[in-house]
Amino acid sequence: MSIFRALNSLEKDTRSKRMKKIIGSIKSDVAKGLTLSHSLRRTGIFSKYVTALIKIGEESGHLADNLEVIAKQQKKERMFRSKLQTAMMYPVFVFGLTFVVGIGIAWFVLPRLTTVFGQLNVELPLVTKIIIGFGDFMKFHGLQVVPLFVIFIAILIFLFFINPKTKFIGQAITFKIPGLKTLIQEAELARMGYVLGTLLTAGIPIVTALKSMANTTTTLMYKKFFNYLSENIKVGGSFETSFKDYKKSRKLIPIPVQQMIIASEQSGRLASVMLTIGEMYEEKNEDSTKRLATMIEPILLFIIWVGVVFVAMAIILPIYSLVGNFQRGTSASSSDSQPAASAPVAQINPDESEKNPADKSAGNPDIEDIKMLKSSEDFNVNIREEPGEQFPVIRQAKKGEIFEFNEKKDDWYNVQLDEENSGWMQESYVIELTPQEIKSELEKRAEENVEETSDEAPQEEINQ
Known about the structure:
Layout (H helix, E strand, L loop, with lengths): L2 H11 L3 H15 L4 H8 L4 H13 L2 H58 L5 H37 L4 H9 L2 H24 L4 H11 L3 H15 L4 H7 L3 H4 L2 H13 L2 H66 L3 H4 L29 E4 L5 E4 L8 E5 L4 E8 L2 E5 L5 E5 L3 E3 L2 H29 L1
Antiparallel strand pairs: 1-4, 1-7, 2-3, 4-5, 5-6
Helix pairs in contact: 1-2, 2-3, 3-4, 4-5, 5-6, 5-8, 5-14, 6-7, 6-14, 8-9, 8-14, 9-10, 13-14
């Protein structure tokens, strides 16, 4: 089949309008008598070393063979890029999904937990405070922070991996990561061996082949290295001297591979040895890709596990603290079953309690100085060691329980629990009694003291 008929067949099978236009232009050039390499060079769809290989095939009469070599080489290039992308796709996908889920939890779930924990009236652990603080921050600033963070990540990706002027930074970072370094190095060595071996077998000069190799690779470190080899060999140098003079040659090309290239150059078998190197590192690269995926999976699972445990602890620890405080409050309430014993606020003589109830307070000249308050009647109220929710709860006041209080600090009352101990109750959960209510409470407690004294008297006589 002639070149013109082959191009005509390709044009009929191509669905892309752009490719139909390019093939039509090539057909027109060939019909005018131009060479295929010249026409392809004008379209710009192939690199210089590909068009050079086609030109050599035209001049030597091996155009079909050289086109087959180019097809195989392009297939290898696509395979190498696919392996690198596959190795990076899994961690990128997992981290991206984790980021989306984490932002959703922080934005919509954590603010609700903040409301719930705020009503528990318990001391929150540090991990819970961090989660709640982050949730509050996302609640009020999420609409500004999340888009800015996404834009910031996109800018970093563009600068480190896309922008031609700055992507060497990202490549240098990835080349220092152990697993990725091995993967990139093996892919570059496999590409170098196959491309150089193919070009040299096709009759391309070594200098031109190295320049083509520099144009083929996408890693800037290897691009600079191949350009250096091309210039050094062009002025009469060898692979051996070039490897010695280039400082980073050992990081890019392992010593055994360097020895193979040097020996093959001296023996005149460079092309076949380069093809052998390409096949060897292609197999290694395939194994490294599978091994890297196996290594990354447990690492990602561990990172996700740490995040889940952190959130779970932040939610569960306050609940345990609440249950513990409730149990301590219940035990304290059972041991202090008599309200008068827990708060002996009025020193009233039992003998005076037999007087007229209206005169029960007459024998106590300090009754006007006594101040009392009543706890909430809706739930038990925490009594803390010091004024502040960060201090431990020493007991819980029963619903509507009445105490004498000594002082008030900010929005906290210091209440008397017994003759020696006192605690602090928050102002929003208590009510101060009026003088008349205080008088009634003192009379009530005086009557209870009289009853206790009369009940204990027979037992004392028996003991005597």
